[in-house]
Amino acid sequence: xxxxxxxxxxxxxxxxxxxxxxxxxxxxxxxxxxxxxxxxxxxxxxxxxxxxxxxxxxxxxxxxxxxxxxxxxxxxxxxxxxxxxxxxxxxxxxxxxxxxxxxxxxxxxxxxxxxxxxxxxxxxxxxxxxxxxxxxxxxxxxxxxxxxxxxxxxxxxxxxxxxxxxxxxxxxxxxxxxxxxxxxxxxxxxxxxxxxxxxxxxxxxxxxxxxxxxxxxxxxxxxxxxxxxxxxxxxxxxxxxxxxxxxxxxxxxxxxxxxxxxxxxxxxxxxxxxxxxxxxxxxxxxxxxxxxxxxxxxxxxxxxxxxxxxxxxxxxxxxxxxxxxxxxxxxxxxxxxxxxxxxxxxxxxxxxxxxxxxxxxxxxxxxxxxxxxxxxxxxxxxxxxxxxxxxxxxxxxxxxxxxxx
Length: 405
Known about the structure:
disordered N terminus; disordered C terminus
C-alpha cells in the first residue's frame, strides 16, 4: 500500500470510530426522546402533545406540508435519508462495503434479516388487505438505537462486531429505501417525476464538469425533493437520490464534498432530526384500551417480526455462512455475542415507525397498533441483546486500556 493509501485508510478508520461514537451518543438521545414521547402521550399534556404535531399550521411555505408532523416526516427525514445516502455511497466505494468479500456476510445477514421478519409478520397478522400492508414494518434496524445500547455495554463488544452491526444496518437502509419506493408509493404524477429526474440529471452533470460547490448541489437537492414530494413517490426517497451525484473524489487541496457534507450534517441528524422524529412519532396512549391492544394481530405481528424474526434471520444467516464457508463470522466474536448482535437488529424504532406511518396512512388505529408492536419488539430486543452481549464476552486488554485513556 502506498503512503497515500495508508493515509486514506487511516482516515477512513478514524471516520468510522467517530461515526460509531456519534451513533452511540445519538442513540442515547433517541432513547430519551422515545421515553419523553411516551410520558407526554400518557400525561395531562397528551392533548397538547397531539395538537403540537398534528394541529394545522396557520401558514406553510409548502401547501402539502400543513402540520409540524408532516414537516418532520416528509422534510426533515429527507435530510436524514440524504445522510444515509452519503454514508451508503462512501461505504460502497471507499469503506466497509467496497470489497466483495467484506460485504458478503452483511448483505446475506441483512437480506435474511428483512425477509424472515416480513414472513413472520404475515404469519401472525394474516394476508387481509389492511393488516398485510404492514409487512415491512419490522424489516429494518435502527442503528442509532442499537449503537446507544452498545455504548451502555462498553468494551465488552469487540470492534469487529460493532462494524458488522453498522454494516448490516447500512445494507438494511438500502433495502428500506427500495421498499418505500416500490411498495409505499401513491399514484404517480408523471410530470413531477420527470421534473425530478431532470434535476437529478443536472446534479450528475455538475459532477461531470467538476463542480465542488456545496451550495449548487444543495439548491438542486431541494428542487429534487420538491418535485418528488409532489410526484407520488415518498419525498424521503429524494434524500437518497440526491446523495448519489455528490462527488466522493477529493480535490487537490480539500476533502471530498461528500465527506464534508456527511460530517457537517451527521450531528444534526443524530442530535436533532432523529430524536425529534422519535419524539413526534413514538407517543402511544396506553390508557383505557391502549395497552390491551398489544394482543391484537398487528402489534403482535410487528413485535414478533422484530423480536423473533430479526434474530432468527440474521443469526441463521451468520451461522450458515460461516459453516458453509460462504463468509467467516466477525473475528473475535463469540457465538453468544453474535446472537446478541442478531437480537439487537430487532430494534426497529426509527425506520419501523416511519414505514408504519406509510403503510397505515389511512388507518390511524392500525398505525397506533403498529407503534405499540414496534415499541414492544424494540424494547425486548434491546434488553435481551444487551444481556447476551454483556455476558457473552469480556473486555480485551487493549479495549480496557483505550477506554481508560
